[in-house]
Amino acid sequence: MNIILIGPPGAGKGTQAKRIVAERGMVQLSTGDMLRDAKASGTEMGLRVAEIMARGDLVTDEIVIGLISEKLEAVPSAGVIFDGFPRTLAQADALDALLASRGEKIDHVVEIRVDDDALVARITGRFSCASCGEVFHDTARPPEREGVCDACGGTEFLRRADDSESALRTRLMSYYKQTSPLLGFYHATGRLRFVDGMGEMDDVAQAISKIFES
Ligand code: AMP
Predict the structure, then answer these.
(1) Annotated catalytic, 171?
(2) Does the C-beta of 31 come closer than 6 Å to ligand 1?
């Protein structure tokens, strides 16, 4: 089964994707993570997109479609969670074509619905462990021992450059202008489901599980 998680920044796509990976052994393909890796390793493309990402704008379709098609080649068979991809109609068409060439398709597109007001608080307070990537939040989920990662004991934490309030505004606008039209497309092709993303993380995970089992 291949699924897409779709929702505005801060909806919890990455967190839920990691849970699904742990519970079902699927593979998470996050274009955001791929771009951050490219930036961190200082590749020419990584440096080119760094400024665009820091502003909260979308990088070009060509770059992200190239990244996804390269990564898909290394994934043996169906069982992918697409997190943060596709974000434009051109990317959605390219993904359908890439999967079709492997005899596969997208089975479910899960929209994680959240209130805009909640997003600002969620995003501006989040940080993650520099060693294992576990995600924390200043108020909603601080580490049990201050300064120590619950998951791996790491003591270095990172905040994303684009988790500032001004970049978030741009990211939200990109979502509404460029990504939300995908909801109509996936609805029209009978693949769209939605879950309420405002609940506890476990409840959201359970709602997503129900979609898998439907
Ligand atoms: P994310 O981690 O999914 O929130 O992505 C972080 C940033 O990476 C976005 O704000 C964009 O600048 C860029 N990005 C990630 N995925 C895509 C995509 N599918 N299309 C265009 N830009 C993307």
Answers:
(1) yes
(2) yes
